[in-house]
Write a structure and sequence with these properties.
The protein is α+β, with helices and mostly antiparallel strands. The chain is built from eight helices and 20 strands. It has a single domain, classed as Sandwich (Jelly Rolls), CATH 2.60.120.10. It holds the Pfam family Cupin_8.
Length: 340
């Protein structure tokens, strides 16, 4: 990326700060809570406003039925894909043995859900951190919605999870692009990022803690292009290490490890904080930045990703806030260490 003149960065920063302040002045710092799911018309209005909303009463069978014993019995010896890291930070910036910073994806290993549950509840406490976090539509993928022929590792659990959210489907006029299952515990975190999806996120067990920033605050998240790597082992008995990739392009990612740490964001940037408990659902609008933690106990969640509406000005505005030739700001701190 070409270094921009100082006066250009200064002008961009003033404009970006004005947008952040203006948005916050107009919208406040509160989270709307609905005591029951909205109608499709009501949700259309929420889509238009594009602010996070906590929704209660969105009842799915999984919330009532999914105990550890039930999951083990239903899944039996079915092999599932589980992400493994030494630090609980999959898809995050990590320093390698060569002292370089990389965007590192987790090691993926196959195991039964009984093995996973044993590791998460401490019966078989491992040194590495395990997190079921595949983001490819592990319950229902785009192929399922296209031709109905997708195969899932969680086929036996599909009867407990609807393949769409009716009021969201009707409001958007389309079915989801993917439905994902997440199972982990407090040692796993999701680094701050944004998605081009309208996200309906339901906690089935435990709790999830979200730190949220609107798209208008993305300028202060110190995005960089990092070389790609994966966690791996030189042999089965060796610990996980960062293994640089040779054929994957650099990944643009925030260098902010935890936006809730004092001093990691400008003083005028005030994140929203949401603690989502069992049976509660979060509507997370497309483009919102989110950092996700979970409670100490085993936590299960399901989310429905819907493609956002690309027509109109919203997508253009989101791109402006992140585009290299738009409001992207070269940081003076180009060697920021996410491990510090």
């Amino acid at each position: 990326m070409t270094q921009q003149p100082h006066y250009v960065n200064k002008l961009k920063r003033k404009l970006a700060q004005w947008i952040s302040d203006e948005y916050r002045d107009l919208n406040g710092n509160h989270i709307q809570i609905l005591d029951q799911p909205p109608s499709s018309l009501e949700f259309s209005r929420l889509l238009h406003i594009a602010r996070p909303v906590i929704i209660k009463g969105f009842d799915i069978p999984a919330t009532r039925k999914w105990t550890n014993e039930y999951l083990v019995q239903k899944m039996d010896d079915q092999q599932i894909s589980v992400a493994i890291t030494p630090n609980g930070r999959a898809d995050a910036i990590t320093r390698g043995a060569d002292n370089e910073l990389y965007f590192v994806e987790p090691q993926i290993e196959q195991m039964t859900i009984q093995n996973l549950v044993s590791k998460l509840v401490g019966q078989d406490a491992p040194s590495d951190i395990h997190y079921l976090q595949s983001q490819n539509g592990n319950l229902y993928s785009s192929d399922y919605f296209t031709d109905g022929n997708s195969v899932s590792e969680y086929e036996h659990l599909r009867e407990d999870v609807p393949d769409e959210v009716p009021w969201c489907t009707e409001a958007l006029g389309r079915r989801p692009d993917a439905v994902n299952l997440w199972i982990g515990e407090g040692k796993s975190t999701t680094s701050i990022h944004s998605d081009p999806y309208e996200n309906i996120y339901t906690v089935v067990k435990g709790e999830k803690r979200f730190t949220l920033l609107p798209p208008s605050d993305g300028w202060c998240l110190k995005e960089r292009f990092y070389p790609h790597a994966k966690f791996g082992r030189s042999s089965s008995s060796q610990p996980l290490e960062v293994i640089p990739s040779t054929d994957v392009p650099p990944v643009r990612w925030s260098s902010i490890t935890d936006p809730s740490i004092p001093g990691s964001l400008p003083a005028n940037i005030k994140p929203l904080h949401v603690c989502l408990k069992r049976g509660e659902t979060l509507y997370l609008p497309a483009g919102w930045w989110h950092y996700v933690q979970q409670g100490k106990e085993m936590t299960i969640a399901i989310n429905w990703w819907y493609d956002m509406e690309m027509r109109g000005v919203h997508w253009v505005f989101l791109n402006l806030l992140r585009n290299e030739e738009g409001l992207y700001i070269d940081s003076e701190d180009r060697e920021s260490d996410p491990d510090s």
